[in-house]
Each structure stands twice: as structure tokens, then as C-alpha cells.
Amino acid sequence: MRAARIAVVVPVYNAAEYLPLCLDSIAAQSFSQFCCVLADDGSTDGSGTICDTYARRDPRFSVLHLKNGGAAAARAAGVQAVSCEYIAFCDADDLLHPQFLQTLLHAAEESGLPVACCRYDTFTDAPSLNAPAPETFTELEDPRHLEALLHDHRVDYSLCNKLYDANLMKPEFLNNGLAHNEDLLANWRALLLAPGMAFCDFAGYHYRQHAASSSHRTLTVRELDDHRAAAAEILAQAPESLRSSAGAFYYEKLTYLVTRILRLPADAALTPVLQQLTDELRRGEHDPLLGGNPALPRAIRMAAGAAIHAPWLLRPVCRLLLRDRA
């Protein structure tokens, strides 16, 4: 792989329907000194051929044809294959704002911080319109950047709305053993080593939502375990200045997982996990770090209380009001 200032790593798995638009949005970046690594994760639908076509047509694109190992392993392989100053990620069915790389690079260099971030928006059939990118940014210095990762939905858990110093985002952070919430854990491990993050207030990343998205797949015990494991590591590793915030995050995550189970038809495979989560909510209900934490939002405290004391009431509420991201 040739050296470039920025490497954009795209894990690709059976995304032929959407991949050309994604790669076109990368090719159209106003900042041109990038390379794009297409990590074909054992695709069987022609995605690999599309990757090869773009690599032949544009020397900035290159392809790794891998055995199927999941998005995390594909991202890690892409990072290991490049020599660059900064790394960005894009999923194969999403789109980048034309000034995504330029805006985040400017923020990172001007602030001297090793991570720059922007908001993302969502679309289904028609891509979002690209609003002008800002020239200014906000510096989130330690521990505000960690606080934002856990609680600010503009920053979010995703790897894809951020630009990283290549020395910060290590392959082992990416391929961390989780199949779900692996992006949150990768960000947490990297940002623990960073003195802060620059935030650019614009929708620089366009996230496509469709029936094949991860948010629409069947809920599994593995997914629940992965979410819980990521939150548990965050709580265990949180610096003292972030301890209360991490505790609120952990208790909120437990509550979120309970509501995800309750909104679905009864599933015998999930019943033991639901009981474990509910028991943990009960044990932490009055703990000043968890359920009694003043940083815990009131709505989460109410939902957790209902899960503990009135699950028969919470279940129909979850089914009526809660939906997957559409």
C-alpha cells in the first residue's frame, strides 16, 4: 500500500448494492492526499469485483481480499496495511461529506489533538444534502472527550465520524474480541491515551439505515454480552474524574439492554440474560455509583425501577414506544 497523509479504511462484506456510491463519495473528497484501503471480508456478492474495479481506475484505492472474519478484523487488517499520518473509517454502505477529510484534518492540526470528530446524520433511500462545513471547531480536553464519547450523541460511539492520529488507533484496539459495540470499546481504549479531541459541528458522515443494518438483526445472547462487556471495561478503567459518569453510563447500558429484550416477543434463549440484567439493576438500584447516581438521567432511573419492580408494565410500554433505528 502506498503512503498517504490519510488512509480511509473500508471494511466490505456483501455490500455490492451500495458500495459504488460509498466509494464515489470517498473519491470526491476535497482533500486528495489520501489512500483508501478496501478490506474485502470474504464477500460473495460481487463486492470484491467492485473493489478491484475502483483500484484499477484510481491509484488511491487498493484492495485486501481477506477470509471472512468480521468488520473489526477487516478494519485492523486495513490499518496494518498502510503507512499514513491519520486514519479514518467508512462503512461500505455509507457516504462521506465531500469535505469530511479536509475539515477534520484541519481541526486536528490546528488544535494539536490526535482525534477530530463530527456529527453524523441518517438516510434511507436519498442521501442527505451536504451543508457547508464549518471553519471552526471546539476543543474537548481530557476528560471532556471521554465524557462526550459516553454521553454526547453528536460524538457517538462510532469509528466512522472521526479522524485519528495513526499512532493512536492501534490494530489491537480495533480487533478487540467483540462483534458488537466493538467501535465503542476501540474508541474508549484510544481516547484514554489522548489528551482531548476536536469537535466539528457538522454532519460530515451520512449513515445509511436499511433492513440489513445491524440494528435490525435478531437480538442474540452474544450481542447482549458484548454490550455489557464493553460497558464493564469502561467502568473498570474510568479515571477518578470520570468515575461517576462511567457508573451512570454502565447502569444506563444495563437498562437499555433490558428494554431491548422486553420490546421483543418472548425468547427462551434471552430469558436467563434478562434475569441476570434485572438482578444487577436491583443490586445497584440504590448504589450512589449506579442507580443512585445523580448523573443518571431521570428517565433511565424510572425505566430501571420499572424493570425491577413492574416488568409486566414495562414490557408493553417498550413494545409500544421503542423501535430499532429505522
Describe the structure.
The chain has 326 residues and is of the alpha/beta class. The protein is 42% helix and 19% strand. It has helices at 19-27, 47-57, 71-80, 100-111, 144-151, 171-174, 182-191, 221-237, 243-262, 271-283, 298-309, 311-321; strands at residues 4-12, 34-41, 61-66, 84-89, 95-96, 115-123, 138-141, 162-165, 196-208. Strands 1, 2, 3, 4, 5, 6, 7, 8 and 9 form a 9-stranded mixed sheet that branches. The model has no long low-confidence stretch (mean pLDDT 94).
SSE blueprint and pairings:
Elements: E1 4-12, H1 19-27, E2 34-41, H2 47-57, E3 61-66, H3 71-80, E4 84-89, E5 95-96, H4 100-111, E6 115-123, E7 138-141, H5 144-151, E8 162-165, H6 171-174, H7 182-191, E9 196-208, H8 221-237, H9 243-262, H10 271-283, H11 298-309, H12 311-321
Parallel strand pairs: 1-2, 1-4, 2-3, 6-9
Antiparallel strand pairs: 4-8, 5-9, 6-8, 7-9
Write a brief structural summary.
This protein has 326 residues and is α/β, with parallel strands linked by helices.
Order of helices and strands: EHEHEHEEHEEHEHHEHHHHH
Number of helices: 12
Tally the beta strands: 9
**Rg, Cα atoms, Å:** 20 Å
Q: What level of helicity do the residues show?
A: 40-55%
Uncertain segments: none
**Beta-strand residue percentage:** 15-25%
The pLDDT mean sits at: 94
Main β sheet profile: 9 strands, mixed
The general outline is globular
Q: What is the straight-line distance between the termini?
A: 37 Å
> What structural class do the secondary elements suggest?
alpha/beta
